[in-house]
Amino acid sequence: MDTLNIGVLAHVDAGKTSLCEALLFAGKSIKSLGRVDHKNSLLDMYAMERERGITIFSKQARIMLENLCINLIDTPGHMDFSAETERILSVIDYALIVVSAKEGIQSHTKVLWELLGRYDIPTIVFVNKMDYTGIDKMAVLGFLQGINDNIVDFTQYNLDKGNMSFFDELSYCDEKLMEEYIETGGISPGSIKDAISKRLVFPCFFGSALKFEGIRQLLEFMEEYCLIKVYGDKFGLKVYKISRDSANIKLCHVKVTGASLRAKMPVGTEKVNEIRLYSGDKYETVAEVKSGGICAVTGLNNLQTGDLVIAEDIIKNRLFSKPVLSYEMTYPQDIDKNSFFKWLNELSESEPELDIRKEYSNNTISLKLFGNIQMEILKNRIRELFGSRVLFSEGRVVYKETLENTVEGVGHYEPLKNYVEVHLLLEPIEPETGLVFDSKLSKDMISDNVQKHIISHLSQNKDIKGVLTGSGLTGIRISLVAVKSNMKHPEMGYYLQAVYRALRQGLMQAKCLLLEPFYNFTIEAPQESLGRILSDLQNMYAVFKYEFKSDIVEINGYAPVSCIQNYSEKLISFTKGNGKIFLNPRGYGICHNEEEVIDTYAYEPELDTDNPSGSIFCENGDSYYVPWDEVFSHMYIPLYLDELLKDSIKDKENEEIKTVKSTYNDMVLDDEELTEIFERTYGRIKRRTADRQQKRIISSNKEYVYKKIPEIKEYIIIDGYNLIFASKELGALADYNLGAAREKLKDMLVNYRGYVRADIILVFDAYKVEGNYTQINNYSNIYVVYTQEAETADHYIERTVHEMSDKYNVCVVTSDYTEQIIIRSKGCRLMSSREFIEDMERVSVEIRNELLAVSRSNRKNFIFDALPKDIMEKINEIRDTKK
Fold it and tell me: Taking the domain 517-592, which CATH number applies?
């Protein structure tokens, strides 16, 4: 029997678990429909899940059809459990994404869609809650096609006959489908299956899970139109989850990716004890699971989440989403520490992203979490298991460090007469890649076993620190490039000492960068709150764009986690509960306040004795420490990068010599040969005597007139409200009186215009003012523009820049992300609002300093000093004669 693994994903409360329940009922896996609100659904089997009405842990259920077994995997819908969801994506064949017709496309839905694209998983869409009144099916489909144009309504497709309108819509998704439609007048089921499996078409169904509408059609489609993946004969499996049963036996949840998995067969150094096929909290044991199947296995206690088993090799893989906030959890003194620490170890196995670290001295546990919901769940689990309450500190952002340049680190360990020297090449790669370990050594220099052991030790070490703040490293390829030892069989400890010293020495000499995590955000709020929100976002170093939707404004962008993580409370407060913000991890980027963070951490890498950057050498039987910046003058092996450079230069020189010899030597002729050829062609050359040679005439010096290049007039065009809300002073005034903030800004610009040479055009939105037309006023020495009805400041600035950019030097002041892209495309200069405010402050200081200098030089004013020079001389003569 073939096996199909389908993961069910959704934004929280879209009805995902209810849909799973309905599909299980339609497939006769359960006898009655359970409900989440009735707390009797098959897949919400934990008390916390039934109490909260949300999925916290992924669960599996089986639908047994005539020739197909469908493994349905229900995943958590909340962002705080996204790591669990992402692990499931690594083993499913198709995804079923659930969208609520009532709420529409929500923030986490977009995140899931991007994840499915990243994992290249064929996707089916089910629009749930279509039974709500006022739901317009075509409007919902339009919103969905805003995510992807190839989302097609499959409810109109008759599986037996089809219809032309459906094929017509389907043909636009791919050229091959279009060609087949034109040639045959239809599209075959095989072509449709192939297009779906290649993510060229995304089938969409509509219905209601609670009312059992559209469920059977969806199940029939999955049975008929989902292709079964073909696997190889080489044994393999992937561990996607670790859990424990009621008897506390470790379960490795795996997908068999090649050949078959049998009970009692060896895997690595262990043997499979029992194979279980789960459906909810119930299971049956089997003797064998073929490739493509999903099961839970006992007996493999050394395997961890993310491990890949290929034949006899076990490959460690940890590339899943990780939390960006670190917490300190304090536990009470009277807790049963043995049981508590044992449970924490088991929790680390099932959720490795928590990165749990025990601090025995002060009753604290260091761990990382995605957010407050995950924290509350953890508190409840500890209270239920141990009857104790734990306390959590404020979340602290998890920073990371990376490299900007390639360096070679050298580590030497010679405590006595025996030594090992290691050279590591450190190269920057994409931050999302994490740390990649490699070896460029031959077997002659070091055995394969030693190389594998070193790389394995590095890859499993969670405590590799950077040198800026002591944070973890990411985005670096670390390669073994040279090893030397005077021992036939050096101890592995010698190698590791040299390896880690080489790593630290490389980091100390490299140009390191501090990275911080970013959140993507979506804000929905009343339009009248836009100014306040834009001001806040600019102060949070956010990049964003916004659009108006009926009576609300939607703002999408990204910002540093350290700035935006607690913005929800502030937003709800000043919008009186009408504002909402949705956050999801974006990844790491350059830290916006690197120096401030480094100063706060006050990490001194050279004082970190656990991570030495220098090396140990030995002379005359005495070992001594060599600082990292002096290691190059003591090392025994030449630098790998220097050797590469020499080889490159030598190869280039050889190539140049070879090229010259092959092209020049064969063609060169002496003077006699050239003369002979010339005379044979043009006749005998008549030699001129010296006195008959024409003299070269040198013209007299000519007077040149240099024309002065005309100066091009400069204009500064300013988005007024954008500038107001970027300024703390003006923004605060605008909250109280927007008109007063406008007048204050105009006065500030008048002073600024008096100091700079550019004309200033200040543009204000008036697009909501009914019947308004464009007004241009001359306010002292600046121009003030109020746009006409239905025209925003952005549109006016774009139009003005288009007209002026060819004739004048134009600089535009705005922090609007979309506007900045357009301005750059026109070839104009750009200043952010924050930069312009700083420039105005600089000009204000310079004006003040000049005025002070003038006032000091002219402390007293006399009429005599203002007289012409000749009159002053006559007055002085009269004064002298009187004396």
Answer: 3.30.70.240
| Whole-number pLDDT of residue 693 | 38
345-361 burial: b if 16+ Cβ within 10 Å, else e: eebbbbbbbbbbbeeee
- Joined together, the tokens standing for residue 775 give 């007004």
Give the SS3 label for residue 466.
coil
Radius of gyration of the chain from Cα atoms?
Answer: 37
Q: Averaged over 26-33, what is the pLDDT?
A: 88
Helix (H, G, I), strand (E, B) or coil at 464: coil
Domain 325-398: CATH superfamily is Elongation Factor G (Translational Gtpase), domain 3 (3.30.70.870)
Q: What is the pLDDT of residues 72-92, one digit of tens each?
A: 999 988 888 888 888 899 999
Taking the C-alpha atoms of residue 826 and residue 54, their distance in angstroms, rounded to an integer, is 50
Q: Could you tell me the CA-to-CA distances from 634 to 410, 415, 420, 626, 646 in Å, in that order?
A: 10, 15, 13, 8, 21
Indicate the pLDDT class of residue 694, thresholds 50, 70 and 90.
Answer: very low
- Residue type for 640, please? Y
Per the CB < 8 A criterion, the answer to whether 253 and 89 are in contact is: no
What distances in angstroms separate CA 761 from CA 660, 730, 753, one per listed residue? 62, 19, 10
CATH topology of domain 2-225: Rossmann fold (3.40.50)
Q: What is the fold, at CATH topology level, of the domain defined by 405-508+605-633?
A: Ribosomal Protein S5; domain 2 (3.30.230)
CB 677 within 8 A of CB 444: no
In DSSP terms, 297 is beta-bridged to 252, 275
Q: Is residue 80 within 8 Å of 370, Cβ to Cβ? A: yes
The model's pTM is 0.68
- Cβ atoms within 10 Å of 185's Cβ, excluding its own: 9
Q: For position 862, what pLDDT does the model report?
A: 57
What's residue 846's pLDDT?
Answer: 85
pLDDT for 234: 92
Q: Which pLDDT tens digit goes with each residue over 505-552?
A: 999 999 999 999 999 999 999 988 888 898 899 889 999 988 888 788
Q: Identify whether the C-beta of residue 799 lies closer than 8 Å to the C-beta of residue 787.
A: no
How high is the pLDDT of residue 645? 78
pLDDT of residue 312: 81
**Amino acid (1-letter code) at residue 305:** T
Q: Is 688 exposed, middle or buried (0-12, 13-18, 19+ CB in 10 A)?
A: exposed
pLDDT exceeds cutoff 70 at 247: yes
- Per-residue pLDDT at 702: 44
- CB 73, CB 8: distance < 8 Å: yes
CB count within 10 Å of CB 552 equals 16
Please answer whether residues 233 and 258 qualify as being in contact, where contact means their C-beta atoms are separated by less than 8 angstroms.
yes
Nearest Cα residue to 718 out of 795, 612, 831, 622: 831
pLDDT per position as a tens digit, 405-464: 999 999 999 988 789 999 999 999 988 888 999 998 887 778 888 888 898 888 888 789
Give yes or no for residue 147 having a pLDDT over 70: yes
Q: Is the pLDDT of residue 163 over 50?
A: yes
Options 3.40.50.2030, 2.40.30.10, 1.10.287.180, 1.10.10.10; which CATH number does 236-315 get?
A: 2.40.30.10
Please state, in angstroms and rounded to a whole number, the distance separating the CA atoms of residues 836 and 831: 6
**Fold agreement (325-398, 517-592):** yes
* Domain range annotation of the chain: 2-225, 236-315, 325-398, 405-508+605-633, 517-592, 714-845
% of the chain at pLDDT higher than 70: 87
Cβ atoms 45, 56 nearer than 8 A = no
Listed in order, strand segments (DSSP E) in 150-258 are 151-153, 202-206, 236-244, 250-258
